[in-house]
Design brief:
By secondary structure, the protein is α+β, with helices and mostly antiparallel strands. It has helices at residues 3-21, 35-47, 57-66, 90-101, 123-131, 135-163, and strands at 24-29, 51-53, 81-85, 110-116, 119-121. Strands 2-3-1-4-5 form a 5-stranded antiparallel β-sheet. The protein is elongated, with a radius of gyration of 22 Å.
Length: 164
């Protein structure tokens, strides 16, 4: 076999490993992004323990096919960036936050679809995932809700004790 074919097989295996290790994989169209914009996006994803990569669509399609996922064939056309993320919502949130902070990116980077916990998610689903707060925020809200009745009881008992 040729060295080129072996290199492509190695890349497909690398992509398969990254897909399997990630809880979410987001595909996005990155048309006309500048180098500084791509660098900023890569840094945001890196800070969130995610990886922003660009592979050939045919190699990504082959990796998904070998994993038994056929839903992405239509999405793997044109310029496609792939984000491998260790949780379900962070990648979607980072895309939404980047567009919100810099409206010029709205036309340049458009999420196409995602592979979240073994299921296909379309562009509308990505917007819904982006609206979900992170795990840490949800835990903080839950703890606040659990702590509020106890704090209110302590406040009332303290008020009664001080009024006498």
């Amino acid at each position: 076999m040729s060295a080129n074919l072996e290199a492509k097989k190695a890349i497909v295996e690398e992509i398969k490993a990254k897909i399997s290790a990630s809880k979410s994989v987001v595909l996005a169209n990155y048309n006309k992004l500048t180098v500084s914009e791509v660098t900023e996006l890569r840094n945001r994803f890196k800070a969130a323990s995610s990886e922003y990569k660009v592979y050939k669509n045919t190699l990504v399609r082959k990796a998904f096919d070998e994993l038994g996922v056929k839903d992405f064939d239509a999405d793997l056309n044109g310029t496609t960036a792939i984000v491998f993320c260790p949780d379900e919502t962070t990648a979607c949130s980072i895309f939404a936050k980047a567009v919100k902070e810099n409206p010029a990116l709205e036309e340049k980077i458009v999420p196409k679809s995602a592979y979240v916990s073994g299921a296909y998610v379309d562009a509308a689903g990505i917007k819904k995932l982006a609206a979900i707060p992170s795990r840490e925020v949800l835990i903080a809200k839950m703890l606040g809700c659990l702590q509020a009745p106890i704090a209110n009881l302590a406040y009332v008992l303290n008020s009664i004790a001080q009024s006498k």
